[in-house]
């Protein structure tokens, strides 16, 4: 099996599919849209699902509700513009960030930004003695994705407000400046600017420190269920092949490639060493040579 045939190295295929999204960005968008539609179609107009997921202002004094510090990011206002703009930004900028850091690490970054935003908002409300109000929406996490994009790809061109072509780093500065202005000016608005700023700050800290949330977690790979041993009888035509063609060296290379690609899945491509990159390049060349020979 070539390295490009392995399940965690497959590119997304276009066309009708009922297997669900294959990227974390697609999964997050699906969850947000599903929660919005369920609230709009299956509740009696009281937005019960949104109220259930949203963060109350006094959440810091209610430990049993701390799970809402994350779930609020999957609830949105009844105005479809709220969820549409958030998911649009995630759709366009999220895939490159997911490819940079890996599927699981992207999810960790996204959830960490949600927690940073809700904790900041709740702490400010607690300090001001304001027990009223609720927080909802994915804007803080999406802002973190936008800032990470501008830090990783500063010279790419983005359409600011989908109209003005600007370098990514300029868009990032404008986004942070507008949120900072909104937070300082204390405008009468339903926009939680401090949540956006918390997401931006987390993204900047993450990028500058070279942090990887996956490395902070304990290694639980030993808990994974291992596949049972199986005997495989090769077809007669394979038995006639020269033993040197499928020798131990290739088996060892295949095992090493499996390990490296699993590392990419967990920690992202940026975590690879120079030796691991050379191993992938060598395996890719061998696979392409065999593929051309079999045609």
Report on this structure.
The chain is mainly alpha-helical and 295 residues long. The protein folds into 2 domains: 23-215, Rhomboid-like fold (Up-down Bundle); 246-295, no CATH class. Helices cover 59% and strands 4% of the residues. It is built from 12 helices and 4 strands; from the N terminus they run H-H-E-H-H-H-E-H-E-E-H-H-H-H-H-H. It has helices spanning 24-42, 48-53, 68-71, 80-101, 103-127, 139-152, 168-185, 193-209, 213-216, 236-239, 248-267, 274-294; strands at residues 55-56, 134-135, 157-160, 164-167. Strands 1-2 form a two-stranded antiparallel ribbon. Strands 3-4 form a two-stranded antiparallel ribbon. Helix 4 (80-101) crosses helix 5, helix 6 (139-152) packs antiparallel against helix 7 (168-185) and helix 6 (139-152) runs parallel beside helix 8 (193-209). The longest helix has 25 residues, at 103-127.
């Amino acid at each position: 099996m070539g390295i490009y045939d392995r399940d965690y190295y497959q590119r997304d295929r276009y066309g009708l599919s009922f297997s669900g999204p294959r990227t974390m960005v697609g999964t997050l968008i699906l969850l947000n849209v599903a929660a919005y539609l369920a609230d709009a179609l299956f509740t009696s107009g009281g937005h019960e699902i949104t109220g259930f997921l949203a963060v109350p202002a006094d959440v810091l004094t209610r430990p049993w509700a701390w799970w809402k510090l994350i779930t609020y990011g999957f609830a949105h206002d009844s105005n479809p513009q709220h969820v549409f703009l958030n998911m649009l930004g995630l759709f366009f900028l999220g895939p490159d960030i997911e490819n940079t850091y890996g599927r699981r690490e992207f999810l960790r970054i996204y959830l960490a930004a949600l927690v940073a935003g809700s904790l900041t908002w709740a702490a400010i409300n607690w300090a001001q003695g304001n027990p009223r109000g609720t927080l909802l929406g994915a804007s803080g996490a999406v802002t973190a994705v936008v800032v990470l994009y501008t830090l990783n790809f500063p010279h790419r061109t983005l359409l600011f407000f989908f109209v003005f072509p600007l370098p990514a780093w300029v868009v990032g500065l404008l986004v942070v400046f507008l949120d900072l202005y909104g937070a300082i000016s204390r405008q009468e608005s339903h926009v939680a600017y401090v949540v956006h700023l918390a997401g931006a700050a987390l993204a900047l800290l993450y990028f500058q420190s070279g942090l990887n949330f996956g490395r902070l977690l304990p290694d639980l790979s030993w808990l994974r269920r291992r596949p049972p041993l199986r005997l495989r009888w090769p077809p007669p035509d394979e038995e006639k092949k020269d033993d040197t063609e499928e020798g131990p060296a290739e088996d060892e290379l295949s095992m090493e490639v499996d390990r490296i690609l699993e590392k990419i899945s967990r920690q992202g491509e940026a975590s690879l060493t120079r030796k691991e990159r050379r191993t992938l390049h060598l395996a890719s060349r061998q696979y392409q040579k065999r593929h051309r020979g079999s045609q």
